[in-house]
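Let's study today's protein:

:::
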Amino acid sequence: MSLSEIVFLLFVVVDPIGNLPFVQAILGPLSRRDYRRVITREVLIAFLVLLCFALAGERVLGLLGVERSSLHVAGGVILFLISLKMIFKSSAAIFENGYRDDPLLVPIAVPAVAGPSAITTLLILRTQQHVPLGSILAALGLVLLLTYLTLLLGRPISKALGSRGISALEKLMGLLLNLIAVDMILGGVRSFLGGGIPFPRA
């Protein structure tokens, strides 16, 4: 795969545009300065998380004896539960108990940006597509830079759309996320029934 193809794939999987309603719902009460600070911190954390999986994720999962099918199903279940909240309630209600004050690590860095889909994609690129590590790191850096810029522009975009527009966009993204989640679960089940592919043990 070329670098541009990897960048496009990771950008679609990370989906910063689809995450805009979610991020705005969580960070809505923050000042402009605090909003920028949190976005900067969370994108950097997400980059470090994805970097760790790109470098050592296969080894860690191999030590745990985890199959790729298990990763698909677990990620799909998490996304499915989040999508139901987005459709029927609000993404702001997904993570309560003070997460809106200063959401460190959860839920923006993980799982909104560095989610199961992004982690799985990185593992597939490394183990099945045999993409060089340098190309993955370059693509990952570029994608998260684009993600950072997109989230920084979230407030102007939200202002232009209005609360009703954001709500409609959030529910639409919830529906799409629901479809992706179900597809991930079914893919994991199919892989498991076909024998599953365990990560090689270290």
